[in-house]
Design a protein that fits this description.
14% strand; globular; 336 residues; 13 helices; binds iron/sulfur cluster; binds pyridoxal-5'-phosphate; single chain
Length: 336
């Protein structure tokens, strides 16, 4: 009898890049996946053309089936409302074009600079002010990186560098490693901050290499997440973040106040409580940047202030985020 030849089975484990590449980009298919009628209107198609749908499956999994008003779905689905032109809503509401110091570097506030490390994001949020800003050709690449380093090295008042974008955690670990090591050579930098939505929308991004690389620097490091609604948090996210906490990284969260999504005291208090359960402190609650196509998400200041007042009576002080707005030309985000 002949021995059967052992068959070689190849097991492929999807990397986070594969998950990223497989992100939803077709509104019809997304609607199918969440059990809704899949006929986008021509205006919704136009909105998708302007700023294409993008959402990883890990995020889509947290959308409730058959609910057209799901708070997560509303953050990602292109809709006809985006094509309405509203007074006061522009394509560069925070005036990033004039704040640009060298290519890919924004130095708006004393003591800290923000680096646009990439134009890419793992998810496309419909209310984002970046929907019109030409980040694609304004991020740090090639010579611009050296120019940014020179700028930071020449200004000893800069103590903190913020890696932003786009989303810096769409970059490879290798690229991030190089960025961080270059920054470490500048002695007056004490703090490193990462602004990212990736841990929430693509928990698989939190690789062991990433944790090691962020945990092993000489910097005091923080990661500022972006979560708007408690349904965005689940065990998968909490588990992905735990090693970062263990590595001594401070976890903070910023949210955007969004009509029909989180403009409700119950939702916001639950968000704060769930964030803290996952080891994250609420940092900012932003009034929406007045970007063209996002007017239908705006919450008026009076209602925003009422919400914060309600949160103060319900939550410990450390779980109440600071309500702020970004005003072009100001030296900080402005409290309301
Ligand atoms: C928001 C922002 C920062 C960070 O502000 P903090 O109040 O320190 O969180 C820094 N630089 C730029 C250009 C910003 O837009
Ligand atoms: S920058 Fe932030 S808010 Fe804007 S699309 Fe990217 S992840 Fe969403």
């Amino acid at each position: 009898m002949t021995q059967p030849k052992p068959t070689k089975k190849t097991i492929t484990i999807d990397t986070w890049q594969t998950h990223q590449a497989k992100a939803h980009h077709d509104p019809k298919k997304l609607l199918d996946t969440v059990g809704l009628p899949n006929e986008p209107s021509p205006a919704a198609e136009e909105a998708n053309h302007q700023f294409p749908l993008r959402a990883p499956q890990a995020f889509v999994n947290r959308i409730t089936q058959g609910d057209p008003n799901d708070p997560l779905l509303k953050q990602i689905l292109p809709t006809p409302e985006e094509m309405i032109k509203a007074e006061g809503f522009t394509t560069d509401p925070v005036d990033d074009k004039t704040a640009r110091t060298t290519q890919g570097l924004l130095h708006k506030y004393p003591g800290r600079v923000l680096l646009i490390t990439t134009g890419a994001c793992g998810i496309h949020c419909r209310y984002c002010f970046r929907r019109h800003y030409p980040y694609a050709d304004d991020h740090l690449q090639g010579e611009a990186w050296q120019q940014a380093l020179d700028y930071i090295a020449a200004d000893k008042t800069i103590h903190e560098v913020i890696l932003s974008g786009g989303d810096p955690l769409t970059l490879s670990d290798q690229r991030l490693n190089n960025l961080v090591h270059d920054l470490e050579t500048i002695e007056h930098i004490q703090r490193l901050r990462i602004h990212s939505r990736q841990p929430v929308v693509l928990p698989a991004r939190m690789t062991d290499e990433l944790v090691k690389l962020l945990g092993d620097t000489r910097f005091a490091t923080s990661l500022v997440l972006h979560v708007n609604h408690p349904n965005e948090l689940n065990d998968e996210v909490a588990i992905a973040l735990k090693p970062l906490r263990e590595a001594g990284i401070t976890l903070l969260n910023q949210s955007v106040l969004l009509r029909g999504i989180n403009d409700d005291a119950d939702v916001l208090s639950e968000l704060s409580e769930q964030l803290f359960q996952a080891g994250i402190l609420p940092y900012y609650l932003h009034q929406l940047d007045r970007v063209q196509g996002a007017a239908h998400f705006e919450v008026d200041d009076k209602h925003a202030l009422q919400l914060i007042k309600q949160l103060r009576t319900r939550l410990p002080g450390y779980l109440v985020p600071k309500l702020v707005r970004e005003v072009a030309g100001e030296a900080s985000k402005l409290p309301l």
